[in-house]
Amino acid sequence: MASHIFGLAAVGALALVPAVTGDAPVTVRYRLDQTLTQEIDASASGKGKQSISFSTTGFLTLTLTDSTGGKVVKVVVDSMRGDSTSPVPPAVFDSAGGAEYHAFLNSSGKLSELEPVSSSTATQQVQGFLTDFFPWVKAGVKVGEAWADTISRSTVAGADTVLVRRIVSYKAAAKDKRDNQKAIRVTTDYSSTVAGTQPTPNGPARVEGSGKGSGTYFITSDGRYLGGEWELHSALSISGAFTDQPLPITITQTTKVTALK
Fold first, then answer.
1. Tell me, what CATH number does 35's domain have?
2. Overall domain count for the chain
3. 218 and which of 89, 152, 226, 248 could share a cystine (Cβ 3.0–4.6 Å)?
4. Rounded to an integer, what distance in angstroms lies between the CA atom of residue 155 and that of residue 75?
């Protein structure tokens, strides 16, 4: 369930692919480390508390090509691994090696949803791990500048229909350094709501709740993303014919992105 709730990739495809200019593409590699802890308190149905905690590490190659109105973005999963407690089988991570996703980075530095080039099961399963790795990177941002964004992501697949709405506040907090490079430190605050239905082995379930979080990331004056860290906490509930009253769920997700040399 955790991957469904926090790995919600928007459905659909880019309607238009902007024309690419003749400038040479820029390639950057990133390391993506994530940890997710989930606890369901099923005491009301006589099953006690059920918890899971796992970590994943992925290596990504991001290529940006100048285009009309921004940059065409290609993300390739070089490799991804989960620890021994990961609910995603190693074979799925292995199959996802080489998976490719496309998006568009507009002139203000906001990335569109990543869209998989192929529709393989492995590509779709690991897409959720990539959802939040690239924040809003404003070139030329000044210390003290603040802005906000509202993001809605949904899954619609048979009986699985979940909408996550997140409001993110950004602030260019201070001049800083990241890996010996001059940068602007940007702080973020998140608030979110979750609502929808999901199939379970015990029948359809209603999921709803809210979350909050915060983080920090670093960008150069020309808008290059140098990585960052953030943590999200959610308090949800799940209900259905399998329980007399809603079951509380708590989820904590941490993400760290490192730009590789």
1. 2.30.230
2. 1
3. 226
4. 21
Phi, psi of 44 (to 5 degrees): -65, -25
Read off the pLDDT of residues 177-206 as tens digits, 9 standing for 90 and up.
998 999 999 999 999 999 999 888 888 899
Please give the biggest Cα pair distance in the chain: 64
pLDDT in tens, 214-241: 999 999 999 999 999 999 999 999 998 8
DSSP 80: E
| Whether 51 contacts 40, CB under 8 Å | yes
What pLDDT is recorded for position 261?
Answer: 81
Among residues 190, 191, 193, the alpha carbon closest in space to that of 170 is found at: 190
Domain that holds residue 47: 2-12+25-260
Lowest-pLDDT choice from 1-15, 34-48, 117-131: 1-15
Tally Cβ neighbours within 10 Å of residue 34.
22
Q: Which backbone phi and psi does 137 adopt, to 5 degrees?
A: -115, 95
Q: How high does pLDDT run on average in the chain?
A: 87
111 assigned to some structural domain: yes
Tell whether 122 is covered by a domain.
yes
Residue 128 has phi, psi (to 5 degrees) of -60, -30
